[in-house]
Write a structure and sequence with these properties.
Rossmann fold, Cobalt-precorrin-4 Transmethylase, domain 1, alpha/beta, about 35% helix, 5-stranded parallel beta sheet, binds S-adenosyl-L-homocysteine, 17 helices, about 475 residues, 4 domains
């Protein structure tokens, strides 16, 4: 380790910043965020830096740097493009044993600024010891995406209860258990969902109870998207990685399941058409039972839980039993499949609206209002329509939609084995009869399908000259 990571308290401490340009400004912003009292010395101070000093009771010394400015300073930062000056500041600081940072010159630094992930009071600093700052920044970007912004509030909340928890639990082990439960469980989820008061109440309840671990679980109804794991939301991934038990259905891809917490129980409750492996009522009950055991239950659904996902029915049951729940939207098949197939659902001059329709018909003709579906300039997206494709296309034509209307079938959209079949209302059923693309498949009807060749990239990967 080339440097010892420390967090310095600079609140109300005097800090010297040599330089008045954009680089100095960046450092000044950081110092101001940590509450330092900043003195800037430079022949010129840019407007933004001057403004920042005005806002934070800083001082601008316009003129030449001289070593007396270092007196009484806790830190010094040299951010000028004058190498000789930077070097001078370095030696003056070293003589007075004031820690110094010279921007972009590790040789002259006695401390470095790390790349920062700020979820104050939680702060993460990443340093490459001045060797690979871009790598440190890339790592920071990764962490930024992994750590929900709610960690700030969670940190504040933990700070608020720290003393009470200490008084309530006498051993370190008990306290650690309590905090692990709070910081990874329902309390944390309430904070992330912006329900701070509920989170407060929950902690208070946990502190009052003799057995702080006995409590009602929670159910997360999570949209897993259409198959490509990269289309999961951050929130979906986080909840999947906390789950005690995951109930998933047929549309959830294997790759996505692999992202669930390693020791979570994965339970298949999927439904193939006409083959309900667990009837809906059974699934509803399973969710309730497991939550009552105090478990964190994830109900993982393909696409979006509220689009042909029966999510609403499951929630009604949870509500009846007073079980806390959250719903996480997912990317629905219509949106993902059309995008991955290069077909925009709306496009100027082609379609100004789009309809999501179920093609699963209980009572063949009566279910759909075909007269409404034949208007021009709209895109129709049929879910669950592969087995009724012939009927759907004939009905659309019979009700007046031109037989030449383009149609695309997107099979296993966004997955490695995605296939797209195009045709017209007149011939798509026959084409599918021959091609036999597998389910799940989505049917897109409308002029927008014509755009596919234009918006799909089939180039080869030769480097550009
Ligand atoms: N809640 C899901 C839809 C469930 S209904 C969502 O929002 O996407 C099931 C239907 O969704 C399937 O019959 C199929 O029409 C469509 N579907 C889901 N995933 C798909 C995929 N990866 N490719 C093509 N169609 C898909």
């Amino acid at each position: 380790m080339d440097y010892l990571p420390l967090f310095y308290k600079v609140q109300s401490q005097d800090v010297l910043l040599v330089g008045g340009g954009q680089i100095a400004l960046r450092k000044a912003r950081l110092l101001a965020r940590a509450g330092a009292t900043i003195t800037v010395v430079s022949h010129q101070v840019c407007d933004e830096l001057q403004l920042l000093l005005d806002q934070h009771q800083g001082i601008a010394v316009i003129g030449e740097y001289h070593s007396a400015l270092l007196d009484g300073k806790m830190l010094v930062v040299a951010a000028t493009n004058d190498e000789a000056l930077n070097e001078r500041v370095h030696y003056d600081a070293a003589e007075r044993q004031v820690p110094i940072n010279v921007v972009d010159n590790p040789r002259l630094c006695t401390f470095v600024f790390p790349a920062i992930v700020d979820r104050s009071p939680i702060v993460i600093g990443i340093s490459s010891g001045g060797k690979a700052p871009v790598l440190a920044r890339l790592l920071r970007a990764k962490l930024e995406t992994l750590i929900p912004s709610g960690y700030s509030k969670l940190g504040e909340l933990a700070g608020k209860f720290r003393q009470q928890v200490k008084e309530r639990f006498s051993t370190i082990n008990q306290r650690r258990k309590f905090w692990e439960d709070v910081l990874q469980g329902q309390v944390a989820e309430q904070v992330f969902a912006g329900r701070l008061e509920d989170a407060n109440t929950l902690i208070e309840q946990k502190l009052e109870r003799a057995d702080p671990h006995h409590q009602l679980g929670e159910v997360y109804l999570v949209g897993a998207g259409p198959g490509d794991p990269e289309l999961l939301t951050f929130k979906a991934l986080r909840l999947m990685q906390q789950a005690d038990v995951v109930f998933y259905d047929r549309l959830v891809s294997q790759e996505i399941l692999e992202l669930c917490r390693r020791d979570a129980d994965l339970v298949y409750v999927g439904k193939a058409r006409d083959k309900h492996s667990v009837p809906q009522q059974g699934i509803n009950q399973l969710l309730v039972e497991h939550a009552k055991l105090g478990k964190r239950v994830v109900r993982l659904k393909g696409g979006d839980p509220f689009i042909f996902g029966r999510g609403g029915e499951e929630l009604e049951e949870l509500k009846q039993h007073n079980i806390p729940f959250q719903v996480v939207p997912g990317i629905t098949a219509a949106s993902a499949c059309s995008t991955y197939a290069g077909i925009p659902l709306t496009h100027r001059g082609y379609a100004q609206s789009v309809k999501f329709i179920t093609g699963q018909l209980k009572n063949r003709t009566a279910d759909l209002n075909f007269a409404e579906l034949i208007h021009p300039n709209q895109t129709l997206v049929f879910y669950m329509g592969l087995h009724t494709l012939d009927h759907l296309s004939k009905q659309l034509i019979a009700h007046g939609k031109p037989a030449t209307t383009p149609v695309a079938i997107v099979s296993r959209g966004t997955r490695a084995d995605q296939q797209v079949l195009t045709g017209s209302l007149a011939d798509i059923a026959e084409r599918q009869q021959q091609a036999q693309l597998p389910a799940p498949a989505l049917i897109i009807v409308g002029e927008v399908v014509e755009l596919q060749p234009k918006l799909t990239w089939f180039g080869d990967l030769r480097p550009l000259d």
